[in-house]
Amino acid sequence: KEIDMKSGLSKAFLYQANSHWFQGNYQKAFKFQRKALTIAEEITDKRQKTFVYNTLGLIYWTLNDSSQALENLNKSLKLAQEIESPLDIATAYNNIGLVYRKDKKYEKSIEFFQKALKKDEELKSKWGQGYTHRNLGMSYLRLDQLDSASIHIQKAVALSREIGNQTNLVKSMLEMGNLAMKRKNCSKAITA
Q1: Coil, helix or strand for 182?
Q2: Hey, which of 62, 64, 152, 186 would disulfide with 136, CB 3.0 to 4.6 Å?
Q3: What is the pLDDT of residues 45-62, one digit of tens each?
Q4: Residue 192 and residue 177: Cα distance in Å, rounded?
Q5: Mean pLDDT over all residues of the chain?
Q6: In the prediction, which pLDDT does 184 show?
């Protein structure tokens, strides 16, 4: 603030918002989001606005406000497309898919996860592909399309293992267990 580095200040406010969000302090998260957005708008930083709207969408998703979540995630997507940032486009698609899955609109979630996967593949991002395959697997699992779910979850496990992404590996292994339970294979669910 003292050296008038507004871009850095906006990022600092966004980090504070994320920290409060992760701790469940939603009012403080919104307060710092607004500060970050105000500065990003003032300096016309579209990339920063992309981040702010994305995070704002996820906060609303956490609070089960799908309408506000989608409104903000779509703003993030539009900005990401304007600045031609494939990574931010993939992120927005993935997060929009999360909202639709939470609303039990599984086909719609798959549509957005497929768009995200295409961008992840263009970027050659194994990290992104791992998360997106897990998301696809989870949506197919909820539709009882178990063969499709299995293909995506196995890809998520393989990619996560290959790059050492322990968080996604553990979550993907959990989905392998859920898949085995759906198939009434309890012994495999235990070892998954």
Answers
A1: helix
A2: 152
A3: 999 999 999 999 999 999
A4: 5
A5: 93
A6: 87
The CA-atom distances, in angstroms, between 113 and each of 126, 132, 134 are 15, 6, 10
Q: What is the DSSP annotation of 24-58?
A: T-HHHHHHHHHHHHHHHHHTT-HHHHHHHHHHHHH
**Rounded distance between C-alpha atoms, residue 47 and residue 78, angstroms:** 11
Q: How far apart are CA 92 and CA 132, in angstroms?
A: 12
Contact between 74 and 95 under an 8 Å Cβ cutoff? The reply is no
Q: How far apart are CA 158 and CA 169, in angstroms?
A: 8
What's the rounded mean pLDDT across residues 18-38? 90
Return phi, psi of residue 119, to 5°: -65, -40
Torsion sign (Cα): 128, 134, 138, 139: positive
Q: How far apart are CA 78 and CA 106, in angstroms?
A: 23
Q: Report whether 30 contacts 59 (CB < 8 A).
A: yes
